[in-house]
Amino acid sequence: MSGLLLQAVVSGLLLGGVYGVVASGLTLIFGVLRIINFAHGAVMMLGMYASYWLWVWLGVDPYLSVLLTAPAFFVLGMGIQRVVIEPNRAAAEHNQLLLTLGLALFLENLALVLWQGDFRTLRVPYANASFVIGDALVEVSRLVAAGGAVLIALALFVFLRRTDVGKAIRALSEEREGAMLVGIDVARIRAIAFGIGSACVAVAGALITPFFYIAPDVGESFNIMAFVVVVLGGMGNFIGALVGGLIVGLAESLGAALLPGSLKQLVVFVIFVLVLLFRPEGLFGGARGR
Amino acid sequence: MAARALGALAAVALLAAPPLLPKYPLEILISILFSAYLGLAWNILGGYAGQFSFGHAAFFGIGAYTSTLLFLRAGVSPWLGMLAGGALAAAFGLFAGYLSFRYGLRGPYFSLVTLAFAEMLRVVAVNAKVVGASLGLVIPSGTPAPSLFVFAGKLPYYYVILAMTGLALLITRRVARGRLGYALIAVRENEDAAEAAGVNALGGKLAAMALSSFLTALGGTFYAQYFAYIDPTITFGPAISIQGLLPAIVGGAGTVLGPLLGSFVLTPISELTRALLRGRAGADIMLYGLVLMLVISFLPQGLMGWRRVVRRPGR
Amino acid sequence: MSLLELRGLGKQFGGLTAVTGFDLILEPGEIVGLIGPNGAGKTTVFHLVAGYHRPTSGTIRFKDASIVGLKPHAICRRGLARTFQLVQPFAGLTAVENVMVGAFNRERDAVSARRRAEEILDLVGLGAKRSVPARDLTLSDRKRLEMARGLATGPDLLLLDEVMSGLNPTEIEAMVRLIRAIHGRGVTLLIIEHVMRAVMTLSHRLVVLHHGVKIAEGPPAAVARDRRVIEAYLGEDGGAA
Q: Do residue C219 and residue C195 come from a single domain?
């Protein structure tokens, strides 16, 4: 495999792991609440800023900051769900989408107002460390991000399979009527699911701060990426989100290698439109097709 | 009857008052009408056909770039270019609409697909040197030439956007009260029953899409001529899509006056916020987000629904 | 030329056969009753004829032209209207607006559509309730509304799917009179019904479906005495209404 292609594959898989985690938060939220959370990217952005400020003010290493941000964003997520989303759970589908759009606009521009639009970067000492595999350059920070993504995915997997709450989440996603009959506290699980999704995406944000810029609009591109991955993997399908993330990461990376300028984004959108039109249930089958 | 009198009064005020207004209020009024116009255009597809597009920027950008490129490269008057842009946008809308409706995309999935289409056009524009890439295009505006849609001062532009808004209102009213309006509402309420009653659901949605995209594109040309500068982010970006849908939702989707009302409420709020919090970019959009959440939560029919809430509380 | 011709009509849903080998010919001006125990496939026949499902076998000819593969709205425009077993009004619209949706099939503009709609509402007895939102109408009224909407499209053939279900005896008698009035206007009718009294008095001919197969056809009196028909009903759900 030529050096350029190998590089693209490696980079794509590494970033794809992060996409997978971002998307699994979104797909979890969809599975339980049946809403497409437009504010997902905004929460990720806030997670990145949280890690950034912890670094700048208290010198907390971004990888360690997740110990603080994960629980904080879990609580924040639950709060948002309880205050904003739960009261409107009976609203029409398109209205719920508009609700999360409003939330996204609010959060993104809150960040803009508070911290201005300048790009910030989080420079940790080891940021530029890298090593070589064959013809490909692997940055340590990206490898750690991917590794962290794998850890999160595993943790989520175990959580969903082994714990009571996790099983309740799966029950609600896959068989709502039955789950409600069995006496699961639906409202609580919905809040928890949103909390987990938010914590997930905030941690993913923390993981990429060493090599990604931080700005109020950074969430927007991850938002779109997450939608594509979730639709590709199947709405509500956790494994699908992880695998989908790798596929999208690869596709984007190969697109960047083969296409000039920023046309790589087109690759992702084309995949998106094709999947929506011809296989809306996703590659692995989702909770709902259209 | 009071409503008619009020409407007539408002129309007279909008026609007669502006020459007397100082520059800043006139600019705000232009802004209000521009937003209302985009909202009215969006409303035909979003409110009446019930298909919530998040990607109307696609049509806006097609309109802006078509008329501008025809003007810069071929000397075609933007008045004609406007129509060409509208036709192209309608064609693209029919294409995107056919794909979406034919394959059964509804609700949020339709919203996402339209967003994807708009973003695709934006990426293409950013990377295409022939349309100026991310540097954008500058429209010559120094020498006034009314036949080329270039005016001295803001007042002529005001009357143009006023006329466009009036046109959009008339079109919306005709649609709402006519065959297409009934067809669209029927499809929105119950597509199967509508089909059984002889309504061509696909045809109706496509008609709404074509009309909506055509009108939106005209707005793009107006923007280009008024601000004299366009680039991919301004014309194809999510911000302009939101600028179209917000007044319609807040004012009342699926009503004739909703987008107008929504714009008259939202735009001054935005201007006021920007004036009060100078240098704090984003404060106005932040407020928009808050307003959107509040409207969806407490007045899902928009401001026009307020009348229903007050008059018939049992509903 | 017969109005409607079904030959060898069949529909499979996966492994389930809903209808098979169904033949039916409708002449203009007839009232034909389609009866049979629950689950016999009667509504499926309606769905096939009206274009909601594509038949897996057989042909459907309406006014001497095949309508297989046409979308429901196209079939409606050719003069074939239907009602649904579970009424489907446009809840947010008033009665007259509901009917106007159908009226636009025959009228170009809103004024004439409204006129047509009002005339038909008077025919079905809902004239006084024209401005009432559909969601506020009683079940009996909603059934009339649905029939009105179908009538407004100017059909030559109207498919009525259990319009009497859920009605009390007075309402049933009124509905029988209405159906006769509709027939009097020149509309051919194919009626699915469980209310035996009504369908026996209305129909010129009865067709009996059982497990998707036609087991009897003929004048109502003869069909009522047919042993296979009696067994089908008694064996399945203990008799009809």
A: yes
Strand partners, C192: C34, C161
Look-up: residue for tokens 């949605």?
Answer: B205
Q: How many domains does chain A have?
A: 1
Asked if A263 and B127 count as a contact pair (C-beta separation under 8 A), the reply is yes
pTM of structure:
0.90
Chain B nearest CA to C23, separation (Å): 23
Min Cα distance C215 → chain B (Å) is: 29
Query: Are the C-beta atoms of residues C126 and C178 closer than 8 Å to each other?
Result: no
Residue A23 is assigned to a structural domain of this protein: yes
Domain that holds residue C125: 87-154
Q: How far is CA B59 from each of CA A240, A266, B66, B128, C96, rounded to the nearest angstrom?
A: 34, 18, 10, 18, 37
Whether B113 sits inside 8 A of A104 (CB atoms) is: no
Query: Is there a single domain that holds both residue C92 and residue C146?
Result: yes
For C101-133, letters b (16+ CB in 10 Å) and e give bbbbbebeebeebbebbbebbebbbbeebbeeb
Quote the minimal CA–CA distance from C150 to chain B in Å.
6
With contacts defined as CB-CB under 8 Å, which chain C residues touch B308? none
DSSP A71-99: HHHHHHHHHHIIIIIGGGTTS-HHHHHHH
Model confidence pLDDT, tens digit, residues C149-199: 999 999 999 999 999 988 999 999 999 999 999 999 999 999 999 898 899
CB C34 within 8 A of CB C85: no
Strands C80-82 and B137-138: unpaired
Structure tokens at B183: 């067809």
Tokens found for residue A217: 């609009």
Q: Any idea where the domains of chain B sit in the sequence?
A: 24-236
Q: Are residues C66 and C3 in the same domain?
A: yes
- A141 within 8 A of A148, measured Cβ to Cβ: no
The whole-angstrom distance between residue B74's C-alpha and the CA centroid of its chain comes to 27
Question: Which has the minimum average pLDDT: A49-58, A256-265, B163-172?
Answer: A256-265
In a domain, A283, yes or no: no
Cross-chain residue pair A260–B242, CB shorter than 8 Å? no
Residue B224 bridge partners (DSSP):
none
**SS3 at position B180:** helix
Closest among A232, A237, A236 to A278, alpha carbons compared? A232
- In the sheet with C80-82, reading across from the earlier edge strand, the strands are C80-82, C157-161, C188-192, C31-35, C205-210, C213-218
Task: Find the Cα–Cα–Cα–Cα dihedral A173, A179, A185, A189, rounded to 10°.
Answer: -10
What ipTM was assigned to the predicted interfaces of this complex?
0.90
Compute CA distances A252 → A213, A262, A265, B191, C14, whole Å: 18, 10, 7, 38, 40
Between the CA of residue B124 and those of A113, B54, B58, B102, what are the distances in Å?
A: 30, 18, 11, 25
Q: What is the dihedral of CA A153, A155, A157, A163, to 10 degrees?
A: -160
Taking a C-beta distance cutoff of 8 angstroms, is the pair B32, B25 a contact? no
- Identify the CATH number of the domain in which residue A167 sits: 1.10.3470
Report CA-CA distances (Å) from A280 to A22, B140, C142, C223: 20, 46, 36, 49
A219 is in which domain, residue-wise? 3-278
> What does the pLDDT look like over A3-26, one tens digit per residue?
788 889 988 999 999 999 999 999
